[in-house]
Amino acid sequence: WGFAFTPAFIELAGIAGFDLSDWSIAIYHEITLISRYTITNNTTLLNESGGYGFWVLGNELLSDASDQMFTNLLWDIPTGIQLLNEVGGVEDSIMFGGVASGFELVSKIDIEPAGTNGVALIGTGTNRDDFAWAFDTNIVFSTPGAVNMGQIFGDLIVPEAYITALIMKTNVQFTVVGNPDNWTVQPMITTNLMANPVAWTMVTPFNEQWTGGTNQVWFNFPTGVTNPIYSIRLTAP
Fold first, then answer.
1. CATH architecture designation of domain 162-235
2. Where in the chain are the domains?
3. Of 27, 49, 73, 200, which has the highest C-beta tally within 10 A?
């Protein structure tokens, strides 16, 4: 990491179909922001490994494997890396070679100019907390854009689908991501989340289109309903 003559990259992994548009990676030296890389619009994770996909920020030595390129290098530690979502919320923060408030300390670092070593998440699971940081020769640099050596993603029994956009103009439109295997989509509606149980009703009729793990759903405004609350139900094919 940080030497111009060695491969360097940051890899994100997530559920296929997830839209990373406007997410960003911020890089710090100590607590000073050095650079920020914003992921371009219409960047959706592909289904590359068991329902998961990858996105890579790399240097020129990994141009073939990178989705976006570094514009500068930072080799001196402590180095902080922060992942932010599309509204600027912090999803993850790690720091190498130092301690800072709000950052997880990763004690594994590679300070040798040879730079053949790497730091990667390994373990088995489906969520960030299921994995732990490890340091080993070539554990990262051989797998940009693929599962790390020593990392196993568990089976996706139920897709973790999310409504990422809701537009209500002449009709109701929303975008659902996280449906890589094209499970059947059914929009639902209720007016009271305090009820026990909550009375969800199917929205009918509706229109739907699926592409690469993302569903576009649209339908007319329900008649006679005030303050509607929407959700999505997925059914295995």
1. Sandwich (2.60)
2. 9-153, 162-235
3. 27
In this predicted model, what pLDDT tens digit does every residue of 32-61 receive, in sequence order? 999 999 999 889 999 888 788 999 998 888
Secondary-structure class of domain 9-153 per CATH: mainly beta
Supply the pTM of this predicted model: 0.61
Query: Which residues neighbour 108 within 8 Å (Cβ) at sequence distance 6 or greater?
Result: 96, 119, 133, 134, 135
**32-38 and 52-58 beta bridge pairing:** unpaired
Among 233, 218, 146, CA closest to 188: 233
Total Cβ atoms within 10 A of residue 19: 22
First to last CA, the chain: 44
Q: What is the pLDDT of residues 89-116, one digit of tens each?
A: 999 999 988 888 899 998 766 555 555 5
Answer whether 11's CB lies under 8 Å from 144's CB.
yes
- In this chain, the answer to whether the domains covering 9-153 and 162-235 adopt an identical fold is yes
What three-state secondary structure class fits 4? coil
Give all strands of the β-sheet with 214-219 in edge-to-edge order: 162-168, 172-177, 214-219, 207-211
Q: Give, in degrees to the nearest 5, the angle at Cα 181 between 176 and 184.
A: 60
